[in-house]
Structure formats: structure tokens, C-alpha cells
Amino acid sequence: MNDTILETKGLTKEFGGFSAVNDVALRVRRGTIHALIGPNGAGKTTCFNLLTKFLQPTSGTIRFQGRDITRRQPAEVARLGLVRSFQISAVFLNLTALENVRLALQRVRGGSFDFWRSEEILHVYDGRARALLDEVGLGDCADTPAVTLSYGRKRALEIATTLALEPEMMLLDEPTAGMTHADVDRVVALIRRVRRGRTILMVEHNLSVVEGLCDTITVLTRGRVLAEGDYATVSANPEVVTAYLGTADA
Questions:
Q1: What span, in angstroms and rounded, lies between the C-alpha atoms of 173 and 125?
Q2: Angstrom distance (rounded) from CA 84 to CA 101
Q3: Tell me, what's the pLDDT at 86?
Q4: Residue 133: enclosing H or E segment and its boundaries?
Q5: How far is CA 137 from CA 1, 97, 152, 189, in A?
Q6: pLDDT at residue 181, rounded to an integer
Q7: Which residues does residue 33 pair with via DSSP β-bridges, in sequence order?
Q8: At the top level of CATH, which class does the domain 1-81+167-250 belong to?
């Protein structure tokens, strides 16, 4: 279907005979926010690692924008527009917010070694870097060292560096994990802002975040798809209630 941006068929990953992901069929529609949820050990992280090619599947296929990416390398799929941010904030703490985003811009434009060049040459990236900081609500933090930012603002900075790679689709790994209520609200608002013109697939434990943000939810348990639909549909499924919603801090 032409509205499908990412699709898997029969996706399976075995570790020594144990199936962490088992025959997963996933279809993500373009322009939506799609969540993967499930209890601990359900296979969410393994599935994410398969989609972004940090793991190779035992069997099955992955297609992104019609291309078979099953055996591609992580850098290749990132160049195709499928970009992941990690559960633990991955920013350079000793650089300023502007320098972090500028470094990501240098990479996407093939200037990986521009940091050896003069400061004047590097400033060609400043305008776009500042625009990205504005987009994620960090316009007033351009000259702030990342190490001094709050946890929620570090996550916002990570999303800015992800946006610098010009993704068609963003994969967010527990974007609100470990945050205060105020930081959760800020990151949810940020995701709403940056979704325009993009597709987002996210692993998220906070069900109120999932309910408020996500168009489609896929529930995994024991490596298999248990249910799929909008929040009202999956939350009313008795098997989901037993396997996930009824599990404390799943």
C-alpha cells in the first residue's frame, strides 16, 4: 500500500534457540505516530534493533519506502531516512547545544572532519542549527554546554540532532523514560511539534503518553504481536489487559 512507509513480514530473531522476536508483521503508515508497547521481555528493544539494523534477523524481511533493507547496515538505512534516537540521551556533553546540532549537520552534508577546519568555515552551519534548536524549544540554549541542561532538555537536544539528519522516519526509544512529570509534558509537546511531515515509531512505557500521542499501537508479548489498533481498541482487549495493562510498571 502506498501509505506504508515501513513494513515487516515474518520478522524473527533467535538467540541460541530462544525467539526474542517471532514472526512479527508490522505496518507503519506514513505520517503517523506508531507505538510498540508490551511488558518487559516482550521483544520491543530487539524489534527496534532489527528495524535499525543493529541486529540482523534470523528470518523475515524489512521494507522501508518500498526498499528491502533487511540486510542493510545501520549507516545505510540512516542515509535512506530511517533514523533512531536512543533510550539514553546521546549528546556530546562538553559541547554546546549549537555545536552538537552543528556536528550532526556536518555529518549529513559529508563534512565529518570539518571540526579540524577554521571556526569561520564551521559557521556556515549555524543558521540551520539555530533553526533546529528553535524547533525543539531550545533556542535560548544555543551557547549552553549540554552537560548543564536538564535531562528533558538533553532529550530535546538529541531530537534536534536527529532532525539534523533529515529523517523521513524517526524511531524513538522510550523518549520519556526517567523524566519528571514536567519534562514528560515538554517532550510530548515537542513530539507533537516535530511530527509534521514525518513518521514516528516509538517504544514507550508511559501509557498516558501513548494514549495522548499515538495513532496506532502494536502490543508485543513474548516476541509476538498480541494486538494492534488505536488506544481504545487495544486497551479494551482482555488479552492486552492481562499481558500488559494489568502488569505494574510493565
A1: 28
A2: 15
A3: 67
A4: helix 126-135
A5: 35, 12, 11, 10
A6: 87
A7: 200
A8: alpha beta
* Alpha carbons 200 and 185: distance in angstroms, whole number: 18
Q: Where exactly are the structural domains of the chain? A: 1-81+167-250, 91-166
Cβ atoms of 12 and 19 closer than 8 Å: yes
Counting every residue written for the chain, the total comes to 250
Average pLDDT (166-172) is 92
Cell 533510550: give the residue: 87
Amino acid (1-letter code) at residue 39: P
- Residue 42 main-chain phi, psi, to 5 deg: -75, -15
C-alpha cell at 15: 538467540
Q: 62, 11 in Cβ contact below 8 A?
A: yes
Q: What does the alpha-carbon distance between residue 132 and residue 103 come to, in Å, rounded to a whole number?
A: 13
Go through 139-175 and write b for each residue having 16 or more CB atoms within 10 A of its CB, e for each that does not. eebbeeebeebeebbbbbbbbbbbbbbebbbbbbbbb
Strands 67-68 and 82-85 come out as unpaired
- Greatest C-alpha distance within the chain: 62
Provide the percentage of residues in the chain whose pLDDT is more than 70. Answer: 88
* SS3 call for 237: coil
Alpha-carbon separation of residue 30 from 1, 34, 215, 226 (angstroms)? 10, 10, 11, 22
Grid cell listed for 194 = 516535530
